[in-house]
Design a protein that fits this description.
single chain, 290 residues, alpha/beta, Rossmann fold, N-(1-d-carboxylethyl)-l-norvaline Dehydrogenase, domain 2, 8 strands, globular, binds 1,4-dihydronicotinamide adenine dinucleotide, 3-hydroxybutyryl-CoA dehydrogenase activity, 6-PGluconate_DH-like_C_sf, NAD+ binding, oxidoreductase
C-alpha cells in the first residue's frame, strides 16, 4: 500500500515541522491538535518557514502554495481514520501518549503505519498501547524539522520489517536521512545529548561559570552550533526533564539524575523559548533578547 495521507497529532514545535516536510514531499496532511489557537500558530509557523525557503530560492511560489494547500487542520482525531501513516508528536508524557494511542489504534485503518516522534519513551510500550505492535515504530525527527536531516528510526520488539521499510522510504521522500537504532532508553540521540545538557545545568547551579560562558565554551571550543543551555531552551525544559527521567528510570543509574535546577525551572513554568523564558528570555517570535 502506498502512503498518500500522513496524519500528524500534536501541532507544537515538532508536529508543525513534521506536517510541513510531509506536505513538501507531496503527501496530503491532516494536522490535529486539541487547541484551535495552536493549529493557527502552527500554520503561521509553516508559512514563515516556507517563506524563508522561497526567499532563498529553494522552492518556487507554486511549491509554496501547493504545500500549504496539502495541509488540513482539525480538532478531531476521527479525521485520521483514512491516514496511511500517523505520526504522533504530543507532549513527552507516557500517560498522555498511552491514552492517545489507545484511541488512535482503534480508529486508524487496518493497514496504517503508526509512528511516534517520542524522544525517549520506549517504542515497545507505546506499540502495545496501540494494539498493533507490528505496524508501530519510532520516527524521531529533530528540531527544527524542516532543516535537520536526521530521522532516528526505532523498531519496537514486535515491529515488522515491512513497517520499518515503509517508514525509511517515507523519511527519504521527506528529504531526510533515516538511521536505525534499537529501542533502549533515549535511543542514541538523547542518551548522548541529554546528559550533556543536564551536566551544563549542574555546572550553572554550582556556579562553575555564567550561562553565557558555559554555552560559549561548547560553541567556541567544541564547535557546537548552539551551547547546551540555549539548546535546552530550544528543545523545551519540560521535554528535557521528561527525557532525563526516562533515562534515570530506564538505566537505574544516578548519573542520569535530573538536575534539581532543571526540575525547579519546570515547576516555575520557565520552559524555554516556547514560553518566552528559560535560561534566556525570548520575544514572541522566539528571538533571544536576554
Ligand atoms: P510542544 O509542547 O511544542 O507540542 C506538543 C503539542 O501536543 C501541543 O500543541 C499540545 O496542544 C498537543 N497535544 C497534547 N496532548 C494532545 C492530544 N491528546 N491530542 C492532540 N494534541 C495534543 O512539544 P514538542 O517540542 O513539539 O514535542 C512533541 C514531541 O516530540 C514530544 O514527544 C517530544 O519529546 C518530541 N521531540 C521533541 C523535540 C524538541 O526538540 N522539542 C525533538 C524531537 C522530538
Amino acid at each position: 500500500m502506498e502512503i498518500r495521507t500522513v496524519g500528524v497529532v500534536g501541532a507544537g514545535q515538532m508536529g508543525s515541522g513534521i506536517a510541513q516536510v510531509a506536505a513538501q514531499a507531496g503527501y496530503g496532511v491532516v494536522l490535529v491538535d486539541v487547541s484551535e489557537s495552536v493549529l493557527e500558530r502552527a500554520l503561521s509557523t509553516i508559512r514563515r518557514s516556507l517563506g524563508k525557503f522561497l526567499e532563498k530560492g529553494r522552492i518556487t511560489q507554486e511549491d509554496h502554495e501547493a504545500t500549504l494547500g496539502r495541509i488540513r487542520t482539525s480538532l478531531r482525531l476521527e479525521d485520521l481514520a483514512e491516514a496511511d501513516l500517523i505520526v504522533e508528536a504530543i507532549v513527552e508524557d507516557e500517560g498522555a501518549k498511552r491514552a492517545l494511542w489507545e484511541r488512535l489504534g482503534a480508529l486508524a485503518k487496518g493497514e496504517a503505519i503508526l509512528a511516534s516522534n517520542t524522544s525517549s519513551i520506549p517504542i515497545t510500550a507505546l506499540a502495545r498501547y496501540s494494539g498493533a505492535p507490528e505496524r508501530f515504530i519510532g520516527m524521531h525527527f529533530f528540531n527544527p524539522v524542516p532543516l535537520m536531516p536526521l530521522v532516528e528510526v526505532i523498531r519496537g520488539a514486535l515491529t515488522a520489517e515491512a513497517t520499518r521499510d515503509r517508514v525509511v522510504e517515507a523519511a527519504r521522500r521527506m528529504g531526510k536521512t533515516p538511521l536505525e537504532v534499537q529501542d533502549y532508553p533515549g535511543f542514541v540521540s538523547n542518551r548522548l545529548l541529554m546528559p550533556m545538557i543536564n551536566e551544563a545545568i549542574e555546572a550553572l547551579r554550582e556556579g562553575v561559570a555564567t550561562k553565557e560562558a558555559i554555552d560559549g565554551v561548547m560553541r567556541l571550543g567544541m564547535n557546537h552550533p548552539m551551547g547546551p543551555l540555549e539548546l535546552a531552551d530550544f528543545i523545551g525544559l519540560d521535554t528535557c526533564l521528561a527525557i532525563m527521567e526516562v533515562l534515570h528510570r530506564g538505566f537505574g543509574d544516578d548519573k542520569y539524575r535530573p538536575s534539581p535546577l532543571l526540575r525547579r525551572m519546570v515547576q516555575a513554568g520557565l520552559l524555554g523559548r516556547k514560553t518566552g523564558r528559560g535560561f534566556y528570555t525570548y520575544d514572541e517570535k522566539g528571538n533571544k533578547v536576554g
